[in-house]
């Protein structure tokens, strides 16, 4: 075959994908034949679980990698339906967070063993979702996004991928920032109609009353704005980086002897001996705007869009202040399960109560008084203290 013709054939899917994105459609490609990402190669496949990979291109051009564990180690049950579940991790984390403990302890394994078809969302900017149709991670424009874009583009694209592939509504399970962007996304009727029910683990939809000393110091010292004024576009807290230096500044005000406990809250559930292993997979990259958006939520009441200042807000939103997400518009028939921890310094009881009050939909709760912020995803006893309730909740719809 003529080499030029062969090249054109090979480029056709890419060109078609870019054209679909330009037309505001979702572009989906199944790439399970080249499973190379951490979820599949480091975790699922070695532990005896099937693993596929997909890419989906958002309507603003980001190429997300989504992994799928379609059934458990015992294989698919003949004739049994496998409801799809999307797992979405928090800020500075990727999908591997759901698999860092043993198959008997990790929700990412327990769900397929319980008969669910599990899809792992990697938000833009993380290692597995660091591509764009025209931009490189070296381009400042690549990092020009915050929580708003995760809610407006990444979640809808992933839900549409799952719906197109399975023909079914999906359950959604989010942790930390995965809860914030979920409710922001579910305000959109078209997005919400692709979701059967949602589980929000350690919800941080409202952040005005957090007790995290590091989080409070970072936000009220406006260190997020210092970071942005430096011209940095992605948030990096590696040793020697500006992000690390600013965290050191926050730690001048508070005791950061144990940075995890100082930031998220102490816990008897977290296996600290595995911290070295966990740290291989976090922190993941995110944008400086995203960190600034979270700091804005600490400084202000409610769940608001990214505050660009009066002039920027007028240009983008047509008003001087950034608009608030109206989560009260989510209808009462939409089922939500909130999982709370008594030692969580980010998901404060006052903020969660305000959230429950503002949510007009059907809300159920799980409460574990000895859980910190990370325990619903990394706690060694969550498999028996929380996950059975999560699974029962999902099966009730």
UniProtKB/TrEMBL annotation:
Superkingdom in the source lineage: Eukaryota
Protein's recorded name: Uncharacterized protein
């Amino acid at each position: 075959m003529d080499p030029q013709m062969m090249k054109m054939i090979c480029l056709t899917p890419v060109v078609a994908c870019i054209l679909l994105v330009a037309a505001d459609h979702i572009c989906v490609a199944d790439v399970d034949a080249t499973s190379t990402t951490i979820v599949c190669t480091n975790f699922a496949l070695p532990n005896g679980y099937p693993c596929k990979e997909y890419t989906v291109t958002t309507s603003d051009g980001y190429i997300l990698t989504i992994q799928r564990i379609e059934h458990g180690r015992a294989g698919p049950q003949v004739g049994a339906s496998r409801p799809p579940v999307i797992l979405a991790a928090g800020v500075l984390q990727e999908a591997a967070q759901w698999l860092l403990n043993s198959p008997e302890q990790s929700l990412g394994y327990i769900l397929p063993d319980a008969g669910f078809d599990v899809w792992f969302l990697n938000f833009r900017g993380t290692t597995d979702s660091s591509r764009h149709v025209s931009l490189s991670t070296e381009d400042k424009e690549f990092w020009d996004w915050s929580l708003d874009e995760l809610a407006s583009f990444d979640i809808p694209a992933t839900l549409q991928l799952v719906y197109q592939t399975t023909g079914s509504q999906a359950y959604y399970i989010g942790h930390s920032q995965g809860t914030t962007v979920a409710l922001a996304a579910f305000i959109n009727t078209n997005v919400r109609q692709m979701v059967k029910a949602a589980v929000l683990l350690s919800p941080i939809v409202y952040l005005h009353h957090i007790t995290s000393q590091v989080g409070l110091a970072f936000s009220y010292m406006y260190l997020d704005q210092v970071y942005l004024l430096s011209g940095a576009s992605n948030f990096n807290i590696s040793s020697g980086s500006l992000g690390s230096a600013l965290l050191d500044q926050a730690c001048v005000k508070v005791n950061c002897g144990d940075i995890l406990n100082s930031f998220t809250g102490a816990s008897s559930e977290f296996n600290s001996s595995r911290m070295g292993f966990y740290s291989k997979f976090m922190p993941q990259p995110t944008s400086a705007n995203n960190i600034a958006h979270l700091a804005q939520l600490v400084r202000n009441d409610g769940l608001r869009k990214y505050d660009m200042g009066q002039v920027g807000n007028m240009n983008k939103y047509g008003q001087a202040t950034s608009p608030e997400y109206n989560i009260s518009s989510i209808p009462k028939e939409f089922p939500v399960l909130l999982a709370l921890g008594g030692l969580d310094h980010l998901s404060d009881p006052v903020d969660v109560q305000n959230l429950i009050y503002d949510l007009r939909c059907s809300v159920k709760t799980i409460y574990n008084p000895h859980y910190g912020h990370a325990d619903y995803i990394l706690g060694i006893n969550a498999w028996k203290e929380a996950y059975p309730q999560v699974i029962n909740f999902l099966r009730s719809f």
